[in-house]
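Chain X:
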Amino acid sequence: MSLFKQLLLAISLFMMIVFSGNFIVTLESSRNQSNNQLLSHAQDAATALNSCA
């Protein structure tokens, strides 16, 4: 295998690893944001129900 092909393969693998890591981090951040939003809505609903009683 030529040096050019080896470099191309190494760079491609590196880019795939970086993009995969970025995707996982973004997905986890999105999941945490959704959980925090749901918790906030649940707290607002509980407060509203408590004030009606």
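Chain Y:
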Amino acid sequence: MTAGVTALPTGLVARTAGLIVGAVVFVWAGMMLGPSPALFGFGYLAAVWGAAAVIDLQTHHLPDILTLGAYPVFLILMLPSAAIEANWNGLGLAALLGLATALALFIIAFINPAGFGLGDVKLGLSTGAALGWLGVMEAVAGLLAAFVLMAVFGAVALAVKRLGRKSDVAFGPFMIAGVLVAPWLAQLMS
């Protein structure tokens, strides 16, 4: 949420959690894409998102080195897949929907800067691009799912008194979770 944070989580639990998130994202990508050169791009995002989720949960900050760099690197890594699979439309949608997701999140952050950070906006570049590769409905479903998952978590945490009404909740992990459920949610929406 704040630019320039460089502190990384320490300890075995933090590293293990990051690896688990990354592994889950990579397995998800394999299920969605099958054997495809696109797995290079999604594998890169799995590593980035695993680290980002842990850092955001621990510090409520998403470092620029993870969020800003992920979007162009992902698109570059998707070039071979676009060429080999003749999926230039997928690459174009990935680029466009990454920007559209970040713009939507920026508008929300502008309206409510106390409740939403620019790190989330920058993470939206790569989450929107990844889902854009899969399709427009997936990108819409992923963003919607992130907000629904966070709302459900917030309601449950309030009910069991784990959070107060003014507590901060890291949104990045919910964005990543939204990516994971987006393909199935998109099928339900269509």
